[in-house]
Amino acid sequence: MIDNPDNDNIAEGPMVFIIIGKGYEQKGGQGIELHIMLQAPDDDSAVREALNALSEEGFLEADLDQIGVLTDIPTEEPHASAYQGALEGEVAIIRFD
Predict the structure, then answer these.
(1) Would the pLDDT of 1 be above 70?
(2) 19: number of CA atoms within 13 Å, CB side?
(3) Confidence at residue 4, expressed as pLDDT on a 0 to 100 scale
(4) Strand 16-24 to strand 32-39: parallel, antiparallel, or no bridges (unpaired)?
(5) 40 within 8 A of 14, measured Cβ to Cβ
(6) Which of 2, 46, 69, 73 gets the most CB atoms within 10 Å of its CB?
(7) How does pLDDT run across 52-93, given as a tens digit for each residue?
(8) How far apart are CA 47 and CA 26, in angstroms?
(9) CA triple 21-87-81, angle to 5 deg
(10) Helix residue spans in 18-78 (DSSP H)
C-alpha cells in the first residue's frame, strides 16, 4: 500500500474556500450579495459552516451560487483581510450592500 500518494490534488497549504451567493435578512426581502471565505476540509463542510455563520449573523435564508478553492492570495481589500481571517479560523463574510 502507498503511504504517501503522488497526487496533484493534494493541497500544499490550507484550503481556503470562497462561496458566492445572496443572503436574505427578511422573508421576501432584498437579497444582499455575499462573498464568504473560510477554511474547511471539503466543500460540504465549507457550505455547512458558511450557512451556520450566516444564521449567526441574522440571515434567514441564503442562495449559494458558486464555491471554489482560492489558489492565489488576494491582494485587494476587502478580500485580502477576509483571506487572512479565514487562515486564522474565522468565517469571513463580505457584504455588498
Answers:
(1) no
(2) 27
(3) 47
(4) antiparallel
(5) no
(6) 46
(7) 999 999 999 999 999 999 999 999 999 999 999 999 999 999
(8) 21
(9) 65
(10) 43-56
